[in-house]
Amino acid sequence: MSRAARQQALVGYAFIAPNFLAFLIFVAGPVVAGLFISFSEWDLLSPPKWVALQNYVDLLTNDRLFWLSLGHTIYYALLTVPAGIVISLALALLLNQGLFGTRVYRTLFFIPVVASSIAVALVWKWFYNGEFGVLNWLLSWFRIPPQNWLTNSQLAMPAIALTVIWKTMGYNMVIFLAGLQDVPQSLLEAAAIDGANSRQRFWSVTLPLLRPQLFFVLVVSLIGAFQAFDMVYVMTAGGPGNATLVYNYYIWQNAFQFFKMGYASAMAYILFLLIFVITLFQVRYLGKRAYYELG
Amino acid sequence: MNGLSRRTFLKVAGAGSVGLMLAACAPASPGAAPGAAGGAAANQAIKKLIVASFYPVDQTAGWAGLVDQFVKDNPGTTVETQVTSFNEYLPKLLTQIAADTPPDVLGVENTPFIQFVRKNVLLDLSPLLQTDPAFKATDFFPKLIGRYTVDGKVFGIPYDVQPICCLFYNKKHFDDAKVAYPTGEWKWDDLLAAAQALTKQDGERTAQYGFYLNETATDRNLFVFSNGGTVADSEETPTKPTFDDPKTIEGMQFWSDLIHKQKVSPSPAFFEQGGLGGADLFATGRLSMYVNGYWDLVFAPDKFAQVPFGMQIAPSGNDGTRGYATGGTAYCVSQTTKNQDLAWKFVKYFMGMPGYQAAFAAATKGIIYPPAYIPAYNSEVYLKQPNPPVENLQINGDAAEYAHFTPHHERWVELRDTVIIPETQLIGNGEKSVEEALGVMQTEAAKAFAGA
Amino acid sequence: MRSVTLENEVLLTSKVVPVAKTNEGALHRLNTRLLRLLLHIFLIVLGISCLFPFLWMLSTSFKEQFQVFTYPPQLLPNPWTLTGYTRIFATSPIYNWLFNSIFVVTTIMFSQLVFSSLAAYAFARLRFPGRDIIFMLYLATMMIPSQVTLIPSYILMKYLGWIDTYYALIVPFLFGSAFGTFLLRQFFQTIPTELEDAARIDGAGYLTTFLRIILPLSKPALATLGVFVFLYFWNDFLWPLIVINTNNLRTLPVGLAVISRSYFGTDWPALMAGTVISLVPILIIFFAAQRYFVQGITLTGIKG
Prior knowledge:
Chain A is mainly α. Helices cover 74% and strands 1% of the residues of chain A. The radius of gyration of chain A is 24 Å and the shape is flat. Chain B has 452 residues and is of the alpha/beta class. Chain B has 18 helices and 14 strands. Chain B has helices spanning 6-25, 57-73, 86-98, 113-118, 126-129, 142-147, 171-177, 188-198, 222-225, 246-260, 278-283, 295-299, 340-351, 353-362, 374-377, 395-400, 412-428, 434-449; strands at 47-53, 77-83, 105-109, 149-150, 153-154, 157-158, 166-170, 200-202, 205-213, 287-292, 309-313, 324-325, 329-333, 403-404.
């Protein structure tokens, strides 16, 4: 290595040192410990017992709730991610028209992002309440009969999904808004001159140039969806009848209610593998095309 | 270009370091409790006791007074109370135990209790109970302390006697409908008749519901136990589940019919469990009767401010059988405590007269959880209190005779959360029939019992 | 000539059709105005739906307990009362909690800005062996659910003697996070290298370049990260709950949960009062950072 290169490397290490050391101690350490725990049976009340891959085997072959919670999580992701992206993109497009009051709207839509999940979940839980809830009362104006939003097996997950979309749409909207600023006006004008109407302009000019933002939002939303916990914890505790039992909630139960910490750890590492593979997949097949040079 | 000067950068970094230093200088643990009383013996080390619980703020207020008194009477000690919200209590406790830093005195709920015993986390209190004539095992309601006795050894002292036996009723509704108030001899049929008379429709909406049962899971359902039903062959040493017991099925069916057939009860699907329950509907005057534990009254006396309410013991089965699901918490001493004597002294203080007197003095409107310690139960802090909040206070103690607990199986908590409660929810919202749901419970429980 | 790769090649054909300024004139203008009106209505309704839950929180905090669940739902308390607030203030050390939260969170925020940006710059611009592997490690750990690292982390705190101290709340997060480093790295990569090259030619060292060139250009990204970090740690619930035992040392979310979400029911007015109080600092920070923040997401240049 040349002297300059070595100097650069040293500076590099120096710059990351505090960050990396803290990471090793406070993040990597517990993560590795968690991996070891996943190879043991641990009720937290007595010392852990080594069982190698038994937890993993049991999960995959003998636990209906493992598959159920995984299925629910995928369902939840399907509900929240596409709709969330479409809605926030639509809002970004709307707010990009230079309408009067855009800044106010932008702030308003972002406010749900700022509140804590627990506070939001509590309020929406009341909102959805079959007996006292405002939603049913509003719907009664349109002669729609009251529903038990959170205690009906079919409605509970969509109801939670709606809350989540509401809470996060502002954040993704702002990301898309930012991306829209980068779409050059001249390009849109050129397309118009070529005879493209607004719909064609959107699909052929705007959308492709938004690829980077779409990619980022997709990756982050998917990771978030697979790790969903707070809303379910507060709103339904996995019910009714386990209809909203999501993966992370089942991990929580095993770890801290059922005295099966090793088992829960194994679940966590399976999830990690899943997310990792999906993200790799996204990077490989969507990431490549996400980079455009604009002169 | 004027960039961020080195000076500014260092200023910011400096701010961070100052923060760090402040953190270093900040007191490590400004205890919630006062320190040792003045005049402590100079050469006696301060013994520290850690007590963990999840009781809400009224009780915490009582704690402060109690702890002050305890520390005064026991110089050279300090007590730290750790109160955590209910849902997060067990995770935090388990974390502490896993890290080998268990509290000295800890509250353990009745259902996970057996795990704590089997894993040797708790101290056997039986020998200690024989040292003080004012605080013996027989000073507690037998069924309650029996719950926390395993293999003849007492591992926990029950705190309160609160079976799910309180029938709260709206006197005004009864007067308006000209129905006689509930009596201590009420049976299922009386309940049903009254509920039907009290339920009022308003077009398509039910303006007033007759009855609601708060605690509905099959292993804690009033109508299962008052029908003589069971969920396992034994509560202390269960070996097989009995969700297929015809009396259990009959009891659950009666409950389900109240909701779906006679429609005198709102479905639990209309509320969420915990946080929103019968008490809320009752408080707004849209519910005439509901059954829950005495704690509803303790926690929110303000909630019922607009309702003229009465309390009576929940009905027996039609053949006179009584059975009341009971929960509750025991306070135990950690096996590895370094201050065993002090811990036991505290338990006696807390669970005996001093504790209840302190709680009574500090509680809102003097309403406290009925003590499981019989001398306190019979005294002015409960039965003989000067301004009883409601009549018939004696029902809690009376019902204790018919208390039913969840079976003492290590995996019962898991069964509850994964099967019993979810399936009951599906009965409540009408998505499954009673037979189906109980069938699932039986199958899964059998698997768990077999160790699968 | 700009080179742009587009999906639809059709648009690059040189077919030129003049855009006719026809006489859809008046009708067109009316349609546009109507459309705009509808758009505004839609946005207003959506905006209200975003605001409404917070209005309800505010209103509930001023209600009496028996008033919370009436039907039809009442937005305005009747009567107004401050007892929700007095209960919170009277029965709990809420000033302590506020102080703790503010102290802990601002310390973490400033410190993370410093150390995350340093590391992010290194990952973005400097070459050193193992750089990419380390970065991958950072990303990978973001995918592990935190429940399973909770107990090992707690045990670590115990060995360091940090349980029930500010250390446990602050130090593990002081030196930056995977997320923050990731965010800033993406941003730094979009800064044109010419500026740095020019500085190097002028003899500036890496640190000087970082301080004088990179950081000033990064104000929006830093503001963004600051807000995110503040948000995350302000609302953090589980970790402070587990590591702190003393009531006076608790942070705001934990303290509120303990006193109002008990097993036996929820004191809604008090809980909402506490929630309203906990929202105020966050909203202040958000409005203060608005200018930078939105601009910041803009320039975070999520370009892969």
